[in-house]
Design a protein that fits this description.
single chain, about 425 residues, alpha/beta, Rossmann fold, Dihydrodipicolinate Reductase, domain 2, Alpha-Beta Plaits, 3 domains, ten-stranded mixed β-sheet, binds NADP nicotinamide-adenine-dinucleotide phosphate, binds L-homoserine
Length: about 425
């Protein structure tokens, strides 16, 4: 029997550096928890000449074979990111009998099925706690602690960059462009922030959560996505006046046997537990038949929080290895469930329009909504912009298709200058 468990790591950037630090600083207690020490043996990078800050000596290589062909390495951590070659390396590691731990939501959301099949065949562990919510434990709670439940809904704030931006816009009244520049300067948003502000990062994470919650494969392509690029300080001010905050929510809900999966900005009642999740924090709210409501909250990204989740998985894989119990919990997608088209999802809507300020216009707008069975809960008219009256409307709960038809009619009406905002409203 080996006297330690040796690990290879693909990538030594933000997360990889954190993993090396945690394995070193908590090495003694980790050894007690596992039964033997975990040793980081080799790390793959692109540029072997780059200066690295490593807490202990580690072999650094630019040849993946140094890890994949090393019979002493039992566990491979993938923290290099991107779809390829990360996916290929993980599949090759599994074929070589190595357990794989990853933080890579892109690969898990799009190719989870293929990776689970490879893990099943090789009877190795495939663990990905860090792929959703950074340091927040959510994959293992869903897969294990809440496994006895029938889950109805998983709803979360799973992108730190956009939550930081919306928080700043709400608390300081700043505009989208200014807040984005600030988020980039602080290193929260990427140089290319498209995946964050466009909702794609959250959609990948939601696909992973929904697959586990509903025991059915949900991929990134199944998720309806709207980002926050159209959210203005005016929308935020209306939300606050009406008792709401705007959050980019990732929602997976069971709807009469089908699954609704969507990411979009949402008017959330200020009293909702997710409404107080601010700055770069993430949270996931779960509703199950036995547990009732549960919420998981914490840091959704960053070097050490993400490393916390990765190292937790490594310890799990090492314990399984030590006890001869690897491959115990693999794919849990045993059902085939249809996705509900976005056109059929129902919600109340907040709609902001600029219209001609003349008699009969309000009646014409109400008529266009009424013709599509869209019933209005409240109408606010309080100011003029560029000579037009601004109307803010909140509807009752209606199917998306009806709202879209009504808006399409209004866009063709001469008295409607502009449809400025269309934002779904969450009910309590
Ligand atoms: P990062 O800082 O860009 O680091 C990537 C590392 O991988 C670098 O060390 C890079 O080598 C190496 N690498 C990239 N492509 C490679 C290739 N083809 N061959 C060899 N080495 C390669 O990325 P990160 O922020 O740590 O993110 C890593 C993963 O964790 C991603 O999947 C990300 O989505 C996920 N994640 C990140 C966070 C976060 O807060 N950052 C949170 C949750 C999940 P060089 O150093 O030589 O360039
Ligand atoms: N870009 C992500 C966020 C972090 O802003 O939450 C990595 O998952």
């Amino acid at each position: 029997m080996k006297d330690c468990i040796q690990v290879g790591m693909l990538g030594l950037g933000t997360v990889g550096t954190g993993v090396a630090k945690v394995l070193c600083q908590n090495g003694a207690s980790i050894a007690h928890k596992v039964g033997k020490p975990i040793v980081l043996k080799t790390v793959l990078v692109r540029d072997v000449h780059k200066e690295r800050s490593l807490p202990q000596p580690v072999q650094v290589t630019d040849k993946v074979e140094d890890i994949l062909n090393d019979p002493e390495i039992d566990i491979v951590i993938e923290v290099m990111g991107g779809e390829e070659p990360a996916k290929d390396y993980m599949l090759r590691a599994m074929k070589a009998g190595k357990h794989v731990v990853t933080a890579n939501k892109d690969v898990v959301a799009q190719h989870g099925k293929e990776l689970f099949a490879a893990a099943e065949e090789a009877q190795v562990d495939f663990l990905f706690e860090a792929s959703v919510g950074g340091g927040i434990p959510i994959i293992r709670p869903l897969k294990q602690c809440l496994a006895g439940n029938h889950i109805y809904e998983v709803m979360g704030i799973v992108n730190g960059t956009t939550n930081y931006m919306l928080t700043k816009m709400t608390q300081e009244g700043l505009d989208f462009a200014d807040v984005l520049a600030e988020a980039q300067a602080k290193g929260y948003a990427e140089a290319d922030p498209t995946a964050d502000v466009g909702g794609l990062d959250a959609a990948r994470k939601l696909a992973i959560l929904a697959s586990i919650a509903f025991n059915a494969r949900v991929t990134f392509d199944d998720v309806y996505v709207e980002g926050i690029t159209n959210i203005s300080s005016e929308d935020i001010a209306y939300a606050s006046e009406l008792g709401y905050v705007i959050k980019l929510l990732a929602i997976a809900r069971e709807e009469e046997g089908r699954i609704s999966v969507r990411v979009h900005p949402t008017f959330l009642p200020s009293s909702h537990p997710l409404a107080n999740v601010n700055d770069v924090y993430n949270a996931v709210f779960v509703r199950g038949d036995a547990v009732g409501e549960a919420m998981f909250y914490g840091r959704g990204a960053g070097e050490m929080p993400t490393a916390s989740a990765v190292v937790g998985d490594v310890i799990d894989a090492a314990r399984n290895l030590y006890r001869g119990a690897s491959g115990r919990i693999l794919c849990t997608c045993f059902e085939d469930r249809p996705i509900q088209p976005i056109s059929e999802t129902k919600a109340p809507y907040f709609i902001r329009l600029l219209v001609q300020d003349q008699p009969g216009v309000l009646a014409a707008i109400a008529g266009a909504f009424g013709a599509q069975q869209v019933s209005l809960n409240s109408v606010i008219q309080k100011r003029k912009i560029n000579g037009c009256a601004e109307l803010a409307v909140i509807t009752y709960e209606v199917p998306d298709s009806c709202v879209q038809l009504a808006l399409s009619t209004m866009r063709g009406m001469s008295v409607v200058s502009e449809v400025r905002s269309v934002i779904r409203v969450a009910m309590d």
